[in-house]
Amino acid sequence: MIITIDGPAGSGKSTVARLLAHRLGLRFLDTGAMYRAVALAVLRSHTNQHDAQAVSQIAAGCSIRFHDNRLLLNQQDVTSEIRMPEVATAASIVASNPAVRASLVQQQQQIGESGGLVTEGRDQGTVVFPHARHKYFLTASLDARTRRRLAELDQKGQPGSWEEIREQIRQRDERDEKRALAPMKPASDAVIVDTSELTVEQVVELLCRSVTPE
Ligand code: DC
C-alpha cells in the first residue's frame, strides 16, 4: 500500500508521515530530504543554483541513500546539514530543474516498488505515485507554519526572527507552487487536511482512521 502526503513547508507532513508509517508498519520516505541532498552538493561545489546544466551534472554524480533514518550523500551522513535554512532555499531552487526531478522521481518510484510506503513531498500524489491508494494534502496557515518553524529552531538553540522565517516560508511556497514542472498542488483525488488548529497526534489519528476505517 502506498500513502502519499504532500503539502507546503511546515504543514507537519514529515512528522505525520513518519508517525503514520510507524503506526501502520510501513516504510517512510522523505522526498524533500533527497532534494535537499542535491542542493547541499550544489552549495558545497559553489555552483550557481540557477545554472541548469551544471546543477544537472552535480545531481547525476550524487548517490543518495537512506539508512537507519540517516541520509547518506555519497556515503557521508548529511542528516543534520540538510536541515540548514540555506539548504532549504537551495532545494526549492534546484527542484525546478527537470533533470534533477527526473532522476529523483525515478529513485522514489523504485523505492515504492519494494512494498508499503508512506511518502511525503510536493508531487507524490500528482506525479510520482498517481495510483496511490490514499492521498493527503496537508495545509496550515502561514502564521501557524511560521510558529512551528520558530519553535523547531528554538528547540535546536537557534532562535530566528518571525519576519525572516515567515518570509522564507512564503517565498518557498511561491517558488514550489509556481514552477512549471510538478508544482506543489493537491492531487484531484487527495483529501485536504488543514492542520492549523490540530496537534500532530490529532492529524495522525485522523489519517489513520481514514486509511483503516472500522
Ligand atoms: O519538504 P522539504 O522542506 O524538505 O523540501 C525541500 C524543498 O524540496 C521544497 O521547498 C521543494 C522541494 N521538493 C520538491 O520539489 N518535491 C518534493 N517531492 C519534495 C521536495
Short summary of the structure?
The chain has about 210 residues and is an alpha/beta fold. It is built from nine helices and eight strands. It has a single domain (about 1-205), classed as P-loop containing nucleotide triphosphate hydrolases (Rossmann fold, 3-Layer(aba) Sandwich).
Element-by-element helix/strand order: EHEHHEEEHHEHEHHEH
Derived from helix and strand composition plus strand pairing, the structural class reads: alpha/beta
User: Can you count the helices?
Assistant: 9
Please indicate the percent range of residues in DSSP E strands (runs of 2 or more): 15-25%
Question: What is the C-level CATH assignment?
Answer: Alpha Beta
- Helicity, in percent? 40-55%
Strand neighbour order, sheet with most strands: 2-6-1-7-8
CATH superfamily: P-loop containing nucleotide triphosphate hydrolases
